[in-house]
Design a protein that fits this description.
The complex is a heterodimer of chains A (163) and B (331).
Chain A lengths: L2 E8 L2 H14 L5 E6 L5 H11 L16 E4 L5 E5 L6 H6 L2 H5 L4 E5 L12 E8 L5 E8 L1 H17 L1
Parallel strand pairs in A: 2-5, 2-6, 4-5
Antiparallel strand pairs in A: 1-7, 3-4, 6-7
Helix pairs in contact in A: 1-2
Chain B lengths: L1 E6 L6 E6 L3 E7 L18 H19 L8 E7 L3 H18 L3 E5 H7 L12 E6 L4 E6 L5 E6 L5 H11 L7 H8 L24 H13 L8 H26 L4 E5 L6 H12 L4 E3 L3 H4 L4 H12 L16
Parallel strand pairs in B: 1-4, 4-5, 6-9, 9-10
Antiparallel strand pairs in B: 1-2, 2-3, 6-7, 7-8
Helix pairs in contact in B: 1-2, 3-10, 4-6, 4-7, 5-7, 7-8
Classes of the chains: A alpha/beta (163), B alpha/beta (331).
Chain lengths: 163, 331
């Protein structure tokens, strides 16, 4: 499958959140956003921004789904926020209904997506977070498939114009 | 009134028989039974599948341990939400069918109200109104509790739950996962003032929490002290625990003061943390506020608390309908 990769450095929590918001504004129904990176690298912070970009109302706090595994929020499209941190084997994925969720018309943001078997996703975007300093993060964004590559192109333009 | 309680909102399958919302006849939690148990296997992982395997034996065991016959039951209470939909549905659907077959009234209840009602299963329960701090792996919130059913949310976490921060810090420190209990023990060997981690109060006069920042600070500390951190684990976890406990204690005591409550309850899995118990008891004591914390077996998820809160609904004439459904988020 065709892919396109870009890299963005954010210098603060606010910038990571803003990246999420900008990407959220561009997303179409059915997009899967696969997130990976260490504990505390900014995955949940990013999804907080993503939710606002998808018009999830401010009164919804976007809290970590580590325990609940899957949180659902109303927005321009329904946002499913999934966390695979506690998942130990593929059987559990079936049990939490992830397969049905990913086939839905919502936007699905999956934390600890490295636990997913990638061949099970078709087109998707992947973000990998790396901790550089206290608040600065290197974020590698990859789009898989033609439509997702177009999305990466748009994100790239937004960030090029800024700098 | 004798109520059968059923709880399947997260990992544990639980059933209990409780009289009048305060006397436990039996309380069975599947993950606490050993692996050789008939319905055993290892700790039920995450899944509705595991709940399906456990629900019948767990309910049967709760009934048989209670010493009552099914005919003596007056109603059924079951967790309706919040929690994992697939897991909730197992208990909720089971309760519907069980109530229908036994021709009993039944009620779906809020899991979080269940935790708050866990203090009424103890002999020394607080009088109304009181302020409650609910701290667990999945939730961190403060409530103003006016009656068994009239409960006002004052504030909640905006990112991670306190228990989740404990578990993740344990994992970073190489203490395994989940590791809330290990931190409690290890922190006793450390100096809580040696490494000072940030306290996130947000707005000091409000009651929302944020624990994502302190988790990330601990991670950064470990990453930037790769050479020596392994010898400092007790100090690191003690410093972390102190940061979390400081904020929790500050907010719950202030909530009680704002609502002019003379009593505080601490409920949920993290209520088992000895430093939290000690700190809130001390801080509240200096303001002449009494602190109530349920026994350890009632801190974690259990069905006795579900039966306890359900009793108050059923007694007052509330009932759920066969068409009612579960919900994933607090409301």
């Amino acid at each position: 499958m065709i892919s396109k990769q870009i890299q963005i450095i954010t210098e603060s929590l606010e910038e990571t959140q803003a990246l999420g918001r900008k990407i959220g504004m561009l997303l179409e129904a059915g997009t899967v956003v696969a997130l990976s990176g260490d504990l505390g690298s900014g995955k949940t912070v990013f999804v907080q921004g993503l939710a606002r970009g998808l018009d999830v109302p401010n009164e919804y706090y976007i809290t970590s789904p580590t325990y609940t595994l899957l949180n659902e929020y109303p927005g321009r499209y329904t946002l499913f926020h999934v966390d695979l941190y506690r998942i130990e084997n593929p059987v559990d994925l079936e049990d939490i209904g992830l397969y049905e969720t990913i086939d839905s018309d919502g936007v699905v943001a999956v934390e600890w997506a490295d636990k997913l078997q990638k061949d099970f996703l078709s087109e998707y975007i992947a973000l990998h977070f790396e901790i550089l300093g206290d608040e600065s993060r290197k974020i590698v964004i990859t789009g898989y498939g033609h439509e997702r590559c177009d999305l990466i192109e748009k994100i790239q333009k937004i960030y090029e114009e800024k700098t | 009134m004798i109520i059968l309680g059923i709880e399947t909102s997260c990992d544990d399958t639980a059933a209990a028989v409780v009289v009048d919302g305060n006397k436990i006849l039996s309380s069975v939690v599947s993950s606490q039974t050993d692996i050789h148990h008939p319905y055993g296997g290892v700790v039920p992982e995450l899944a509705s599948r595991k709940h399906i395997e456990s629900i019948v034996p767990v309910v049967s065991e709760a009934i048989s341990k209670s010493g009552i016959s099914l005919k003596q039951l007056d109603g059924i209470a079951v967790t309706q939400g919040p929690g994992l939909i697939g897991s909730l549905l197992v208990g909720f659907s089971f309760a519907k069918g069980y109530a229908y077959a036994l021709d009993l009234p039944w009620i779906g209840v809020n899991h979080l109200y269940g935790h708050i009602n866990s203090v009424f299963l103890e002999p020394d329960s607080p009088p109304f109104p009181f302020a409650a701090l609910l701290v667990s792996g999945g939730h961190t919130a403060i409530y103003y509790v006016k009656s068994y059913r009239d409960i006002e949310l004052m504030g909640q976490t905006r990112d991670d739950a306190a228990g989740e921060a404990f578990d993740k810090v344990a994992k970073m420190s190489g203490l395994g996962y989940p590791g809330g209990g290990v931190i409690d023990k290890l922190a006793k060997e450390g100096d809580p003032e040696k490494i000072v981690f940030p306290r996130t109060y947000l707005n000091k006069s409000e009651f929302d929490f944020s624990f994502s920042g302190v988790k990330t600070s601990v991670n950064r500390y470990i990453q930037t002290h790769q050479e020596e951190y392994k010898d400092m684990i007790p100090d690191i976890v003690a410093g972390f625990q102190e940061a979390v406990v400081d904020v929790l204690s500050y907010k719950i005591v202030n909530a009680a003061l704002e609502k002019r409550c003379d009593h505080i309850a601490i409920v949920g899995g993290v209520a088992a943390n000895s430093r939290l118990r000690e700190k809130v008891t001390h801080d509240a004591g200096s303001k002449s506020i009494t602190v109530h914390i349920p026994s350890l077996h009632l801190c974690g998820d259990n069905a006795a608390m579900i039966a306890a809160v359900g009793y108050h609904y059923l007694k007052d004439g509330y009932q759920s309908d066969i068409n009612d459904d579960v919900y994933s988020r607090a409301r």
